[in-house]
Design a protein that fits this description.
Blueprint: E1 7-8, E2 11-25, E3 32-45, E4 51-60, H1 62-66, H2 69-75, E5 80-91, E6 97-103, H3 107-110, E7 112-113
Parallel strand pairs: 4-6
Antiparallel strand pairs: 1-2, 2-3, 2-5, 3-4, 5-6, 5-7
Protein name: DNA-binding protein
GO molecular function: DNA binding
Keywords: DNA-binding
Amino acid sequence: MNQNILVEGDAIIGVVVGVSQRNQTNRQTGEIYAITELGISQVVVDKYGNHQEHVTDVTVTNQQIKDGAMTKLNDLKGKKVIIPVWHRTYNTKNGNGGKTYYLTNDWDKTHYVIPQQQPMKAAS
């Protein structure tokens, strides 16, 4: 799957599928901490011409959570949006590159909800 089509500039376009939390363990200290992520679903076409759903996780910071982002993000569930992000790339153990996406600090002022299209009426 071509990852380049999932992110355009510094924004992700797709349908919000929800917000989730997962626990992560710090390998050096053993500390367990929560990571909160916003899921954005996108339909992509694979190399065989099949449509596949791909969910991109966007990390929500603890400060954004304290500032009330959870309620606002949950209100976007099921809506098609353009969400501003920034990313950090890293190398994995097997040598492949990884990428983590983060919600920008001004996302609540700069995101855009794409209006739903009304179904076309049949000709009479």
